[in-house]
C-alpha cells in the first residue's frame, strides 16, 4: 500500500514551513505503507493542481496532508473541511479570496475519512500533545483538504485522506513572545505514530474528540 504525505512551502513571512521539513525526516516505509512525499505551493489554485497531478500519477491508497498552524500547541487532526476560501493574508502569489466557494458543485463540507481518534491516541502514546480540531481554518490548508476530499468523492474512490496541522518549531518562535512550539523531531515522531495507526479496514475508535470551540 502507498501513502502520499504532503507539506507546504513557507508562507506569511516565515523562512521555513515545518510541514515541509517533516517530510525530509520520514522513512521510505512506515508499517505496511510505501511513503511518497510532495511539497505543495502555498497558493490557492496551484495547491490543488499540484495535488491532483500527484494523485493521478501515484494513485496512493492513503493521503495525509500536513500544514503549519502557528500558535497551536498540539498536533491536530482535522475533522472537517468547508467549501469556503476566506484569506486573512494573501497567498504566495498575492491572491486573497474572500468568501469564495472552492468548488461550486461540491458539498458544503467533507469529513476526513482517516481514523482521526486512533491517530490522536497514537500520538499521545508517544508522550506528545495531540487533539482533534474541528476547523482547519479558511486559508490554503482548508482549501487543500477540501479539494482532496472533493476529488475522492467525485471519483467515488476507496482512497482515504485528511489533514494534520502542526505547531511552529522552536527555531520559528525565537523572536515571538509566548507562542507555542514543538521540536521538529517530536513532530516527525508524532506523524509516524499517526501513520502507523492507519488501518484501512478498521473503524475508528469511539472516544471523545469534542471541544467547546
Ligand atoms: N498553513 C496554512 C497554509 C499553509 C500552511 O502550512 C493554513 O493553515 O492554511
Account of the 3D structure:
The chain has 213 residues and is of the alpha/beta class. Helix content is 28%, strand content 21%. It has five helices and nine strands; from the N terminus they run E-H-E-E-H-E-E-E-E-H-E-H-E-H. The strands form two sheets. Strands 2-3-1-4-9-5-8 form a seven-stranded mixed beta sheet, with helices on both faces. Helix 2 runs parallel beside helix 4 and helix 3 crosses helix 5. It starts with a strand and ends in a 17-residue tail after the last helix.
Spatial extent as radius of gyration: 16 Å
The domain tally reads 1
Number of strands: 9
Arithmetic mean pLDDT: 97
Give the name of the CATH architecture: 3-Layer(aba) Sandwich
Strand content: 15-25%
Largest sheet: 7 strands, mixed
Compute the separation of the termini in Å: 36 Å
Structural class, by secondary structure, is alpha/beta
Fraction in helix: 25-40%
Instruction: Note the overall shape.
Output: globular
CATH fold-level topology: Aminopeptidase
Secondary-structure element string: EHEEHEEEEHEHEH
Q: What is the CATH C-level name? A: Alpha Beta
Summarize the entry for a quick read.
The protein has helices spanning 18-23, 44-58, 116-125, 140-154, 184-196; strands at residues 2-8, 29-30, 33-40, 62-68, 75-78, 80-82, 109-111, 130-133, 160-166.
Amino acid at each position: 500500500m502507498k501513502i502520499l504525505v504532503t507539506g507546504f512551502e513557507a508562507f506569511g513571512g516565515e523562512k521555513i514551513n515545518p510541514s515541509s521539513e517533516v517530510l525530509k525526516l520520514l522513512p521510505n516505509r512506515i508499517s505496511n505503507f510505501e511513503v511518497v512525499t510532495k511539497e505543495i505551493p502555498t497558493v490557492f489554485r496551484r495547491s490543488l493542481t499540484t495535488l491532483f497531478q500527484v494523485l493521478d500519477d501515484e494513485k496512493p491508497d492513503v493521503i495525509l496532508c500536513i500544514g503549519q498552524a502557528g500558535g497551536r500547541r498540539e498536533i491536530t487532526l482535522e475533522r472537517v473541511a468547508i467549501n469556503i476560501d476566506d484569506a486573512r493574508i494573501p497567498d504566495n502569489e498575492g491572491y486573497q479570496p474572500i468568501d469564495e466557494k472552492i468548488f461550486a458543485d461540491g458539498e458544503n463540507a467533507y469529513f476526513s475519512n482517516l481514523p482521526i481518534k486512533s491517530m490522536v491516541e497514537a500520538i499521545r502514546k508517544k508522550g506528545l500533545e495531540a487533539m482533534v480540531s474541528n476547523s482547519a481554518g479558511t486559508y490554503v490548508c482548508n482549501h487543500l483538504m477540501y479539494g482532496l476530499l472533493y476529488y475522492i468523492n467525485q471519483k467515488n474512490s476507496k482512497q482515504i485522506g485528511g489533514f494534520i496541522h502542526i505547531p511552529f518549531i522552536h527555531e520559528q518562535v525565537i523572536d515571538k513572545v509566548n507562542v507555542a512550539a514543538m521540536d521538529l523531531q517530536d513532530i516527525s515522531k508524532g506523524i509516524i505514530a499517526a501513520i502507523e495507526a492507519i488501518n484501512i479496514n478498521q473503524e475508528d475508535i469511539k472516544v471523545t474528540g469534542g471541544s467547546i470551540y
